[in-house]
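Crash report, auto-generated. Payload:
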Amino acid sequence: MTERNEPGAKDQPGTKNELSAKRGDGYRISRRDLLVASSAAALAACAPAATPAASAAPYRAAATAAVATTAATAAPTAAPAAPLKIGQLLPFTKVYAELGASMKRATDLYLKQKGNRLAGRPVTVVYEDEANDPQVGLQKTQKFIDQDKVDIMLGVVATPIAYAIRNVVHSSKMVWIETNAGGNALTRATPDCKPACKSPYIFRSSFSSYQISAPIGEYFGKKGVKEAYLFISDYGFGTESAADFTTGFTKQGGKVTGTLKAPLGNNDFLPFVTQLKAQPTKEIYSFFSGADAIGYIKAWNQLGMPAAGYHMNGAGFLTEQDVLKEVKDLAVGATTSLFWAVTLDNAENKAFVDAYQKEYNLLPDVFAVQAWDGMQAVDLALQATKGDTADRAKLVAALEGVKFKSPRGDFEFDKDTHNVIQDIYIREVKIQNGQAVNVILDRTARVTDPGK
Amino acid sequence: MRRAAVALAAALGAAILVAFPFWSREWESSRYATTVLRDILVFAILALSLDLLIGYTGLPSLGHAAFFGAGAYAAAIAGQRLGTDGLLVTLPVAVLVAGLLAAIIGTLAVRASGIFFLMLTLALAQMVFSFAFQATELTGGSNGFAGVGRPTLGGLSFADGDALFALVATAFLLVLLLVRRVASSSYGHVLVGVRENERRMRALGYDTRAIKLSVFVLAGAIAGLAGALSAYSLRFVSPNDASLGTSITAFVMVLIGGAGSLAGPAVGAVVVIFIERVLNSSIAFSQTVLGLLFIAFVLAARQGVAGLARDLWLRVRA
Amino acid sequence: MGPELFLQQALNGLSFGALLFVLAAGLSLIFGMMDVVNLAHGAFYMLGAYLGLSVVRATGSFWLALIVAPLALGALGLVLEPLLLRRLRGRHLDQVLITIGVALVITDLVRLTPGWGAEVRSLAAPAPLAGSIAIAGSVYPVYRLFVIGFGIVLAAAMALGHRRTRAGALIRAGVGDAEMLSALGVDTDRLFAVTFALGSALAGLAGVVAAPVFGLQPGMDVDALILSLIVVVVGGLGTLSGAMVGSALVGPADNFGKVLVPQFALFLIFAIMALVLLFRPTGLLGRTRGGR
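Recovered output after restart:
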């Protein structure tokens, strides 16, 4: 197939083609000149080295009115405190964008409640988009370190990105509270540090795959379930969850009868659920989240699995609020394990859920909790160091000593691995006040990640 | 006389580029600027290699990231399996593996042309991507391959960011020289001949299929080089590096910058990376900006930015 | 795999194939017939789905969405073709770049639109089609049977329109030799614009029909585009029945592949595409467009 008008040396600028013949050369030049001039101007105006953190940025929380008022009523003895810069690396585009939006909402709400000040220092948050790409994540992390010079870093949703930036964060001694990615290796003493390993500067306020998968395995074993079948999303997270569930389950005498895997981002779950229905084991443990979980639950119902006696179980993301708001009562009866549920009955959670709902007219999800707790940990650690973030060792020690009541219950970091120590709940989906929510059935207290 | 002046200017420009991290040290965010420029140079090498296919030979490949990824993984895996960070070990391995993969894929791909070639390279590259994603034992799977070492050369280590930048910049300049040599050589003219009228070239006795395969392998090998540099720079390889997204990124860099020109791919790399990754820190709609840029360029500027610049220069001179 | 299970999976493959046909029909028209590489096809599909979502939210009517989305996308196509694509006839590289640009703009705007945004959403099947009925020893969702029927009707309508109407004849002629047709007094510009609009409308329609199955999320445009490309390439360029054959092949192949050889499922689909491109580049049913 020959291309008639191809790019390359063939088209000499002097050639009169149809377009210029019709409209004259003058017209042609001016359009091109305009393009060149404007692109050159745009490029010149935004050179990375020259631009400090611009206040026109979309994701950044500029100093709010609250800061102005607190400044006006500042305590007479307080010298103006150095502004605190927090870097948040979250997804705002691509498949996990919803999680990033949720975590930003929680972060903004927390800061709003604190008058945009932590330990007396006015806060600026620099949000950057990880775009589900480790290359981009690395570049933005470098930006946090070199250009924004943030005092502390939070975020990262996708595990590959967390693994990719681990070494850069560690070698630059940037304190990073990881607020979602659950890859086990990030807080373990992995041989050769591949794909990642723990670091004194890295803390995790979310969970490790192990924490949300092994306890439910043990729960089923203890409850007397003899066999379970695994159906997971075929990527790092799914595989890890399946392995950890199996560990917990077999420890209590259970047996896994088989595994079925669906590709990540699978579009049609009917063929898989058809396979599930053709095998005899009724208890099925799964790992799916987001759109995959929605597709799976819909297919599960469409093929009449509940009526045929099958029971859906999984790691908590299978039935988190982002999924439940779409599938509603289709997920009723599913049993999952997670460190939080919107119905969790404690004072902090009630206050959190109420405040979030009032501010955003939405129920919070677990990602919001993870971000919220990350901010709370920063807040308390800074209070312990009296606002000092320059002494990284002191900040690390302060974070290690942080202990508070979070919406999820008692929160503290494991001194050895820096992973969060938390209670794990076994939950079941029920309808309450017309909404599908997770109701707590059981609890395993203070689950720690094994660390290796 | 003019020739000598141009050569001197080029040498000066090259020195300025390679020494960028040193003379920019006083800038407020010099390290960050260095890493951005480094990433741009890596993509510029990738785009240059793709330009050999698209611009010179008229083979529109939408699967070039397969070789970029292959090179990256090969460098990383070789470093791990052979227990060495030696540049003279991992880099040749990367180039060889990528070139070999290009030979295999190329043998199949060059049977097609035009839009069919486009689709075929896309399909074959997706197969490579799915392999990278699934072969967890070898590549780390979806979690990626971490802990890639910075290369060493004799006693010299490129662990330092500035030294690594110098390595990447030097590689870019060498590739630029190579492509220039190829373009101005008789081989390069044969490539253009194949692009212009393959039938006539065959009638003249050229084995166009072999020619197309040879440039495909050359382009693949250079892409593998870029991949290895990416692995060294980021110290991480992920299936993203072999994904359709990366192939499309390289593709649009070539077209935007100006296919068939020497400066074009590098310019395209600057523009695309700048808008996609630097501008998006300041505005929420950088992707829209990029899309509008593509549309505007196709409508107004047939040869991309480099072509525009060349036209301007020629008009100014005339 | 016992006979009953095989039948069930075959039914799954069929319904997935029907969905693929609806998805690919628009691209088959634009790429297969008009020879325009429309990489914005996935973005049109995505836009159609979100428009459908809004219509359902506002009026509660899925059927209304089935009308509004294709109309809106058709209008968009009618505007875009003369504006952007008219001067690019035959210039495939430029078409690739410009349609990528259009896709980037559309998907970014969808993300930034309040109410749509970047959240993962789903659309429920309309009430009469929402349940499951007993089939082949199990239960099967009615909506998927509807999609099979819809696909067949759509294919028949397109084939009829193509073979039996004057418009269809004009399109066939225009693709074969546009210059000649224009010399005969036919406004080829308008013809191509209308064809492109029709293809865009089909993409928008597919967005609504597929939404109850595939859902709505960032990245759905790329997935849809790739699937459509595979179907059109495998089935055949230059003919409408090609898309039917392509989807009838790719649907079950993908289904059985995912279940029987999950590690190779993705690999398998692209291998099929590659094989077809190698040995029958115009597709299984395709024929070369005159002169090219």
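Post-recovery validation: Chain C is about 75% helix and 5% strand.
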